[in-house]
Amino acid sequence: MSNAFRYAPRYTVKDYRQWQGDWELWNGLAIAMTPSSFGRHQNVLAELLTILRLEIERQGCHAAALSELDWIVADDTVVRPDVVVVCGEVPERHLESPPALVAEVLSPSTRQHDQSYKRELYAQQGVGTYLLIDPDSRKAVQLTLNSTGEYELVDSTNSLTLQLYKDCEIAIPLAQLFR
After folding, report:
1. Is 80 within 8 Å of 33 (Cβ atoms)?
2. Which pLDDT does position 5 carry in this prediction?
3. How far apart are alpha carbons 84 and 53 in whole angstroms?
4. Is residue 73 part of a domain?
5. Is 162 a member of any domain?
6. Which among 2, 16, 52, 92 would be 20 to 30 A from 58, CA to CA?
7. CA–CA dist 61, 55 (Å, integer)
């Protein structure tokens, strides 16, 4: 660990709530959000949100798909996933408990964070399904939390099948996601 990292100031949610601009808070470290994403990223994000919302409604699930919602994980950690699915009631403000699903749409500036730090964080927090969606390669990776608290890769070529909770299973056709 470098000395600069070791002596970096540590922040809390209280500090975070005062900041201007777009930030995440990772274990007390302020992480600047990248500028807004490009068209392809936004298109896949909008398609994913639409598909999730329609499938949730079609299946009659008591859940909601939300975009860009801050998730207060701990007093020193706040993240803003691209998409979350929460079961039950929609939070009035920020999310404060693990969602059933988190999806991150990969971009060159976030790819490494999404595949490492956030993957580990989401597994530790008990997020049942983690989707990594790559608009450039037109592929989606579905990771499902196993009984030991680690993510396992779910093989999916044409469609993703997501178990949000016991009585709610939805499907995402990949051709529709990347149209």
Report:
1. yes
2. 56
3. 11
4. yes
5. yes
6. 92
7. 9
Angstrom distances, CA of residue 89 to CA of 18, 66, 86, 92, 123: 27, 12, 8, 9, 22
Work out the mean pLDDT of the chain and round it to a whole number.
89
C-alpha to C-alpha distance for 124 and 145, rounded to whole angstroms? 10
Query: Which residues form the domain of 163?
Result: 36-177
For the record, the structure tokens of 171 come out as: 């499907």
Query: What are the angstrom distances between the C-alpha of 116 and each of 112, 122, 129, 147, 151?
Result: 6, 10, 15, 20, 12
pLDDT value, residue 79 = 96
The total number of structural domains in the chain stands at 1
Average pLDDT value for residue range 107-120: 92
24 within a domain of the structure (yes/no)? no
Q: Does some domain include residue 6?
A: no
Contacts of 137 (CB under 8 A, 6+ apart): none
Instruction: Pull the structure tokens for residue 161.
Output: 């099948």
Lowest mean pLDDT among 35-44, 114-123, 167-176: 35-44
Give yes or no for a contact between 109 and 136, defined as CB atoms under 8 angstroms apart: no
Tell me what pLDDT residue 57 has: 95
Q: Helix (H, G, I), strand (E, B), or coil: what is residue 94?
A: coil
Q: Which residue has the tokens 């920020």?
A: 94
Q: Domain holding 120: CATH number? A: 3.90.1570.10
